[in-house]
Structures are given as C-alpha cells and as structure tokens.
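Throughout our pipeline, every protein is held as a single compact record rather than as scattered files. The remainder of this section carries one protein's record, kept here as part of the documentation.

===
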Amino acid sequence: ISTIKENDVDLLFVDDSIYGNAIKIIKKHCPEIKVAAFYHDIKRYLAIEWIKKNPKSIPIQASLITNERKTAKYADVNIVLNSREAKLFEKYYHKQPEMLLPIILPTPKLSNRVGSNKCNILFVGGYYYPNVNGFKWFVKRVTPLIKVDYEVTLVGNRMDLLKDEFSDNSNVKVLGRVEDLSSYYENADVVIGPIFEGAGMKVKTAEALSYGKLFIGTDESLIGYKEVAGDLLGKSIIVCNSEEEFASAINNIDFGNGFCSENYDFFLRNYSIEAATCKLRTLLE
C-alpha cells in the first residue's frame, strides 16, 4: 500500500488468483487503483480434485477457494487462459472474465539439430502426478505398439526418480533437471503430451511449438491450442487419447527433418511475446 501511494501506481497486475484478501485490502486503502488478476487455472475447480487425492489439504484448499472468490469480486480485470477456463470462471463466479490471454513464451533462438536414424520422441515435464502418470502410461501401453526405430527421452525436474523403473528399457532415456532444454527440443523429431488430468494450459505444449516440433498429445495437453489450430490438426498437431492412436501417429510421421515451419509460425502468431502485445495494450488502455 505504501509503494502504491508513494509511486502513484495506476494499475496493479497480480500474477495469480490466490491474493483476493490482499486485493480487497489494497482497494480499501487505494480506491482509485485498478487491479488486473491473472488466473493460471481456476482454483475453485482444482481444489475439489486435490481434496479427493489428499483430504488433509482441506484447510489449504479452503483458503485458495476463499481468496480466489475475493479476487473475482474485487479485481477490475480478470484474465483467464482459454475458453474452458472462462466457462469455469463463469460457472463459479457468475460473470464473464474480462480477458483471455493464453500462454506466452519468448521465441527461442534456433540452431541446427543433430540428425539421427531413430525417431527421437521427447517428453518434458516435472515430477507431478499428471506427468508421471502420463509418461508411465506411454511407455507401458504405447511403446510396445511402435514399429519404427525410436528412442524416448524424459526430461524434467526430479524425473530422475523414475530412472530405476525404466533402467531395463534401452529405448527409454530418463533424465532429471537440465540447465538448458533447447538441445533436447532441437534434436527431437516429435514431442508428446500424454496428459490426462489437469487444468489451465500446458506450457510445454507452447514450448514444443516454439521450436517448430511436431506435437502429439491428448485433448488435455492441447486445451487452448487445438481450438485455434485449424488445418494443423491431424497433420502437425495430432490429438490422440488412446495407445493405438499414439502409436499410429508415431508410426506414420515423417521424422527426417525435425522442424515444422507451420507449427513455428503458429506459435509466433498466437503464443509469442509479440502476439501478446496488442492484448496487453488493450488492458493498459
């Protein structure tokens, strides 16, 4: 509050939906300020799912729900990621969010990839239930159906905890946290997203597109992407929800080049920093 008053701040941008109590207090002491709140997901929806998995978390989830309700009430602009989140917001808070702003990432500098005779399949994600569950499902259910010569690489924070579980599979390489993901993306022929639970948008999907990679994923991993993908769906962005669909897509892709200019251009138009400029300018106005 002191910072807002001393610097004559006009707009406060809150990078989550869980600070509703703070927003309420700030608006009380600084009634002229405008507040924009960004929702990474809808906590009211997620909290119920988390409570089912861990009933001991009820006090935490109750706090998240209460704060998000206050955020929706007191923020001047509520910003959600996509149409699914907008519907959930409207369901729980009985009004429409003021803005949709999808995942935004910087555009990476691309370099030449290292060629390979194998189909290099990449999965990126930290040690989090949907990622762990999805990767295990892929290795157990999909890889036995893959007919081409392939290698699956898993990269993500603490994912090396799974190394022993797949140590006897020579086609699966499990890594933990790495300093730089760029070389792994560049050398991949296809990036997969076998994700079946969650909310919001998957950052790693946009990251894969930013490197111009073919992407094969479930409906969940492509929320916020498939709705605007148009002719790319079924070609360079492929929706698969069963082991047979995943295997068929991998067996039939052309993995000689490793770079898809259509997906790269799709990223630039929709999920790059440049793409967000007009929407953020509208917010400021």
Summary: The chain has a mean pLDDT of 93. Residues 58-74 form the longest helix (17 residues). The chain is about 40% helix and 15% strand.
